[in-house]
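Q: Start with the shorter request: fold the first protein.
A: Done. Sequence, then structure:
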Amino acid sequence: MATMGLGSQAEIAELLTKAKGLHSRILFVLGALVIYRLGTHIPLPGVDVAALANYQGTLQKGLFGMFNMFSGGAFSRMAIFALNIMPYITASIIIQLMASTYPALAELKKEGEIGRRKMNQYTRYLTVVLALVQGFGLATGIQHQTAIVGGEVVNLVTDPGLMFQLQTALTITTGTMFLMWLGEQINTRGIGNGISLLIFAGIVAQLPQSVVRVAQLAHTGAISDLFVTAIIAGGIAAILFITFMETAVRRIAIQYPKRQGAFGPMMADANHLPLKLNLSGVIPPIFASALLMVPVTLSSYAPQAGWAQFIGQYLSPGKAGYELLSVSLIIFFAFFYVATVSFNPEETADNLKKSGAFIPGIRPGASTAKYLDNIATRLTALGAVYLAFVCAVPDLLHRDTTIPFYIGGTSLLIVVSVTIDTVARIQSALIAQKYESLLKKTSMRGKGGLLGGKR
């Protein structure tokens, strides 16, 4: 089977064997993910692990369940990576929103690499602030929770108080900043998007436990074999649907003018400009999930307050208020991300004009930019509906059925999208390796073969 110009499976295996640089990058990613998984099992100082294991509260339910899934179970274990990378994602949302409304940041965004570095620095500072606030709120929420161990009521925290809150906030912030640094190291020395891979690893780590739970319930007769078959078939269908939508592209025909060759004028070259159907990728659901955790963080400061109970009752996955807010945020961020980050029709039209290319029937310049903007708007609308559908339907099914684990559409979307992106990057590295080998062979022939040998 040929894959993206790589050739047969034997040729792909040979390229993988020879791609030493790719080996080291993949091994670095695996090592980084192992470190991340170890951190999800190191409990916070002052937390009673035995009491936590017997805790029957809400750490794995509702929004907490979704957050726990993103953190790979670190949240329910009250580990040092309990917040995962979510404060960084929330900070990125705030900075990007401010860059589109605040003139100083808007100008900074236009300064190229220097401006991007400054904005990244502001994002890191804001991440520290958000992690401290969320860590303090987490400590406040759990320090008076109890569990039954050996017939006795035991606090989850051995020594609650201000010192525990400050200690937890600092530990959580340190863990979040370490994960942010680890993600950046994966970007630089590994392969794939570091932040996405960390979230991916957290979600995938929960899948074996969910499979075992389903198997146990099916073995005891708590759920029927038909229901298990429906879960498997639904999961496969969802994966195929997401894969199709994530790989679908709209090809816009472009043409290059005739060029003068050695033997006269050459024919015009025809090509195409590919635009993904889902231009915003997996960013909108991640942004929406990060923002939906903000009210949960606030409610942890006063869990007995009426507004906090309202949040717990109406802003949980499957509830009408949550689904409406989630869908609205996904659609908003889909259009926002495409308009500000993902696709710039004016820049694309300008690049086509500079290279002499044009879209048949469309004038170069402003007309091309308007044409591309109309296509991008329609694609974004379709992509936003697709993202909202994929993220909302599993939550509704989970509410109306007895699925024994939480697997949201957002998590499934992240897993499939990150897998596709990582495989594509590995294939690109293999193609580069193949071309490099061909260039070396051509160079050797030129030196000692047809060009360099005796006639």
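Q: Next, the second protein, separately.
A: Sequence, then structure:
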Amino acid sequence: MAQSKDKILEIARDNKVRFVNLQFTDIVGMVKSITVPISQLAKVLDGGIWFDGSSIQGFARISESDMFLFPDLDTFAIIPWKGAANKTARLICNVFTPDGQRFDGAPRTALTKVLEEAAEMGFEYRVGPELEFFLFGTDETGAPIPGATNDEAGYFDATADRATIVRQNMITALEAFGIDVEAGHHEVAAGQHEIDFRYGNALKSADSAVTFKYVLKAIAQQHDLYATFMPKPIRGVNGSGMHVHQSIADTKTGENLFADESDPYGLSDLARRFIAGQLKHARAMSAILAPLVNSYKRLVPGYEAPVYISWARVNRSALIRIPRAPVKEATRLELRCPDPSCNPYLAFAVMLKCGLDGIKNDYPLPDATEEDLFESESARAGLQTLPGSLREALDAFEQDSVVQDALGPHITEKFIDAKSLEWDDYRLDVSRWELNRYLSTF
């Protein structure tokens, strides 16, 4: 239900809120925040607040740094772990320029624009991301100790260790932010977990995904643990993915437009063209969906992450999977290459844009590939693969006008600059592996 200014002020007063964090993200998805005392809340709700955008990753040059934040009232929530003396609420904000225009360099703006394009076609884009994460022990400074998992449990194991309590505390905190949690469980690797929240409107889901990471890190810290969303923090075990379930609903009726019970896979023609669009642009999307050097150490054969650009139902090695739907309303696509280090606003923007491109241009969908692609050479013959490195993904991104259009020229330029610097820094580093392998031999 939509929040009003008066209702927010009433809730803040009744709960003796002292401060409000005004949050937004930079282009790589890091949460940024400006804190105001409660005395300024009414003023901020009416007219926003000015800030200097020149120091924010990917935002603006010093010569065009003045911007203002305007809160989305529906995102108001009281932060549950702040004590009574400093009780704090938060609002997620949209970013505007001095002339009152939405700032094209803000990730939330990029997603909003593509959602508006879909709405003009009569579509509401709905997603359900599944974020996996590891819990690591910390040293005396609170820094994570690499590989220091605090359990030896496996997939869906019921354990009595403290991670179970931590996960329950995380779910309680997420619910305080209005996030509808559906389930939490242990994942395949030791120390690895997953918490799923309700499927819904893509903008709200992106807000929830950003909040999710912020909340889980805070709760883990209270237990002297560190929650990491790094895609592949431990060699030789499963990495952390962010599988995203997707569908399109009719904006007037709410009907799931991906469903057709007469189709062997339960998919409408619209859904098939949407899949075809995402497959066509998969290599370029990878730069946004798997945006770290480390991401490409997850996207390798042998650990359930996809490598081949294909689709299927029972084949979990496929890039896009069609889960069995007990009812029409549950018909959806599961894209399996994103990881939780991505910026959800940018990820959902490019996923939707590429799907819409398939719909608009009536792309044909290749046959499903139901055989295990890692075991069957004939099944994978002729299939393209996802990029093998961040550099390869960036090269594909730079050649794809549709993915670039989803982000706009400002974010495209800043993203490529930032990630090219990241790749060069990695490329020039002399790693521990190289020293161990070569120093005493050559």
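Q: Describe the second briefly.
A: The chain has two domains: 5-103, 112-433. The domain at 112-433 is CATH 3.30.590.10 (Creatine Kinase; Chain A, domain 2).
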